[in-house]
């Protein structure tokens, strides 16, 4: 199963240079790296990254994250994947641009929210 992280361009560049990503400001404040399932990531983009350009969609195999990955309820009760350590570049299966088109993020060709 693939899970996803949306990063801003500078965050992705820093992650590539450092070899890992400890988290954005909200991740660091919450004590874990926020991730999304395939069925959650489009809503995550719309809610937390609305109107933002220069975004990247990182796909990560959940099994690569081991015991540091926990599925925990959000405020609405849905289970979200949370990573309790830095996300390593070596764990990223793919990274694709997430461009803005007509005010909405355009997911990669062939994308559908049922890919898990």
Radius of gyration: 13 Å
Largest sheet: 3 strands, antiparallel
Chain-averaged pLDDT: 93
Low-confidence stretches: none
* Total discrete domains: 1
Count of β-strands: 10
Q: Which structural class is indicated by helix and strand composition?
A: alpha+beta
Looking at the structure, the CATH topology is ADP-ribosylation fold
From the N-terminal CA to the C-terminal CA, the straight-line distance is: 5 Å
Classified in CATH, the superfamily is: Protein of unknown function DUF952
Q: How many DSSP H or I helices?
A: 3
Structure in words:
- There is one protein chain.
- The protein is an alpha+beta fold.
- The chain has a single domain, classed as Protein of unknown function DUF952 (ADP-ribosylation fold, Alpha-Beta Barrel).
- It has helices spanning 9-18, 25-30, 41-48; strands spanning 2-8, 20-21, 33-34, 55-61, 69-73, 79-83, 87-88, 94-97, 100-101, 104-105.
- The strands form four sheets. It has a three-stranded antiparallel sheet with strand order 1-4-8.
- Strand 9 and strand 10 form a beta hairpin.
- The longest helix is centred in the first third of the chain and has 10 residues, at 9-18.
- It is globular.
- The model has no long low-confidence stretch (mean pLDDT 93).
Give descriptors for this structure.
alpha+beta; 116 residues; 3 helices; 3-stranded antiparallel β-sheet; 21% helix
What is the secondary structure topology, with strand pairs?
Layout: E1 2-8, H1 9-18, E2 20-21, H2 25-30, E3 33-34, H3 41-48, E4 55-61, E5 69-73, E6 79-83, E7 87-88, E8 94-97, E9 100-101, E10 104-105
Antiparallel strand pairs: 1-4, 2-7, 3-6, 4-8, 5-6, 9-10
